[in-house]
């Protein structure tokens, strides 16, 4: 599996800097972009929305461990009921920033996840760590994997079986669609899909509203514990080291509060580094997140998968080679342009976009590498990647490197575009 960053020439880095308003600096350059005495945060309190999922961890631990105070702000986490609520409160200004689905923020920028709003991705909060759960009823019928599911679906009338994800342009929708399509199941023509908030997934499967769902942890582990589902695939098996949640906000908020944005990213980045520093820190994080104020669940549902220890509920156990990561020497948090562009290719594939957008320009506009670099400099000891693109190989063997995105989007046989076979 190849997930290395693509090297950029000096000329291309300077061009990328121009696209980012001159903010992209060459490797080794001095990255202090503010003058002493003039860099105080414009705000002292920052309201950050989150959904009760394991991957909200860097935001919560930044507040509870005092990393925010180190940078002159107080992070106030705000627990939200659904991704739609996060979207609405962020857009209205009730929230300053939020733990967000990567594709949700890009969808807002493009007007396909609600009314169009200029958005900003400040950093990636985590990679990996989501899963696709199928019901134990399917397991009892011999469905253990995608291939078995394809045979089962083929034997039924189209739309008979319902699957859930968490937001129409969100990451979970894209992992679910990709996984189904790789098995020859068209996610729009062969099955029915619905939107369900993450904390309501297990309850809805229990009462028979769907036979499968894609969601973040701990809700997949909870389905196994409650004996109503099993993990058919992890998201990292679909796309190793994939981007997942981001720290998102409005573009106008960053322009109005650039020092606050830098302080916020620095605090959350330092929390992410602390979480990844040791298994003990991950265990402590799981204990904290399980409390009522945050996820309101049992610690045991979080700890195993936080440590990369998987039990799929159907007899398989393994130590995952691509567990949920929060830092990885800063590479997790870097706003790779290729990450955002990948979601655009999937929006195009599934008909959410009627024509190819300007992939590179959109990623350069949304992903605020300038803020990330300033924050990384403030935290210290974090190397800036040499380019803005990285390379990955997905479950079906397709290679994504951020180049020729329109060609990549058009390569899939199963799609909803209407202009390819």
UniProtKB/TrEMBL annotation:
This protein's name: ABC transporter substrate-binding protein
Residues that span the membrane, as ranges: none
PROSITE patterns the record matches: TAT
Pfam families the UniProt entry points to: NMT1_2 (PF13379)
Signal peptide: 1-35
Keywords assigned by UniProt, alphabetized: Cell inner membrane, Cell membrane, Membrane, Signal, Transport
Entry similarity comment: Belongs to the CmpA/NrtA family.
InterPro entries associated with the record: NrtA/CpmA_ABC-bd_dom, TAT_signal
Subcellular location: Endomembrane system
